[in-house]
Amino acid sequence: MSDIRSADLNAANVVGDGSRIAHFGDAGAEATAALEGDAVFDLRHLALIAVDGEDALDFLQGQLTNDVGEVGADRAQRSAWCSPKGRVLTCFLVFRHADRLLLQLPGSLIEPTLARLRMYVLRTRVTLENASDAWMRMGVVGDRCEARLRHRIGRLPKTPDHIHSLEGLTVIRAPGRRPRYEILGDAPALNALWNDCRSEAAPAGADAWELLDIEAGIPSIGPETSDAFVPQMINLDRIGGVSFTKGCYVGQEIVARTQHLGRIKRRMYRARWNGSAAVAPGETLEAAGEAASPKAQIVNARAAPGGGFQVLAVLPIEIAEDLPDTGLVLRDGSRLTLETLPYSLHDESG
Q1: Per residue in 185-240, pLDDT tens?
Q2: How far is Cα 346 from Cα 321, in angstroms, rounded to an integer?
Q3: 232: which DSSP letter?
Q4: Between vectors from CA 205 to CA 202 and to CA 206, what angle results, nearest 5°?
Q5: Which of 4, 41, 145, 163 is most buried, with most CB under 10 Å away?
């Protein structure tokens, strides 16, 4: 299938490869456009698993943390797949496209996830296929791009993780404070849409898209953090990624026990870190002080416009809730300053 964005991808300053475009040459400008302006994104770093067969729904119900029966033609769903010990192996966006049930995940986890999922198939009438090359994917953010998208497609979903499908295109509203959409379809349709949106916005890569996910408090699990957190530690229960009423699934006993016995001691927080060197998922930022000083474990991190980094980090709740406005002083003298998440970490009752 011919690629879209060929003129943009052939530019000499593109940073990336066939599986992930980090940015198109000016990461800072792309981050600023993503947060405050308009941008059109190459999303090839996101992979797709197609789940087919008579038992597809039942199979996924026994594997994923959410109630897959609620996925419909107009609704996508956040979910996760856990180890038997209740640790998240990967996060999925589950949705339907062209009458197929799709699991979207980071491309870096597609092969190990497929291999491990297939171990559970046994006699179940279900097939699992890497469908990443079957369709193109792009994203847009901003008012002008939204207007272009509406002009070409018509009605757009208004609620995060809701869908509108038309003539082979699936449009998913992505979480965020500004209009943001992911579009999936065949190359000719996305070629036309990409070129149309490019008249209003510069191209952007995965780094800027992930910065918007961080702002929205949406975690992404990669090889460095797979099998590290129970769902509640990365707030999946707060973004609609866990059902506590569905039947059993892999790791369900641990997840349910954590919830109902009140054993959630750590949560994921959004923060700004003013360090000078990049920090990677899975790494820890240690507070100044004694050897037992609290640590912030990085889930996701991206460079922020103007310097420093926007991060999603897991911290002990008692430490995070008592932090002063000046933030947590780290051993190297830098600071980790908490910022507001777009959802509450507390139950309505308290």
Answers
A1: 999 999 999 999 999 999 999 999 999 999 999 999 999 999 999 999 999 999 99
A2: 11
A3: G
A4: 150
A5: 41
